[in-house]
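Exercise 7.
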Amino acid sequence: MLTHDAAMEWMARWDRQQEGYLPDREERFTVLIDAVEALGRPDPVVIDLGCGPGSLSARLLERLPEARVVCVDADPLLIGLGRAAYPGLRFVSADLRRAGWTELLELDGPADAAVSTTALHWISGPELKNVYAELATVLRPGGLLLNGDHMDTEDATPALSRLEHAVHERETERTFGENRPEAWRAWWDAIEADPALAELNEARTTAGADHRGSESRLLSDHVKALEEAGFTEIGTLWQRGNNRLLCGVRG
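Solution. The predicted structure, written as tokens, is:
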């Protein structure tokens, strides 16, 4: 059985390996939560899309303890890890790629914001349009989509895109040098070998939580999908290299 202490050890290791790809991860978290706080509501309703084990939501609740956060993911292992590590969070098992996922959230009113970090790029372009369109049905007018991720611009500004990658690579080198944290694949190999997680690992193999198909890695993919979903103002709130926080305001 996965204990709280064991889950917190795995979470510390998860956060560290994520930082290896995002040396400014905590800064991006901070800016995203600043934007939610700027809505001016002490108890905002927030949906965390592709929440993983809940790193972002846990930080959001630290800042806004009255917030009502619904964490959504399709991976039973990551959800199980999050539930053990953060018992104060509410996790919902749902695949964003399947129509009707918003019904599983059991919201009693419109949400104020939807947030996501390093997750939605796994969803292909056509599926992403459906995700944003369905999301718009449960966000209040003026509600926010805040998506922190690597998003490239090579289709529109190839020279700038190369510079953005260079900026990110130099920041990573300055931060870690030769001491890069554990890689993503190494973390998964380790957690798959933990006997305390055998049941969750087994559930993961049949849950449809795998990453399949093409990714939506272009900024233009997300902007177009948000526009088609009825978001009227879309722009970058924060950026370092190709790592950015994209914001869409629901019309």
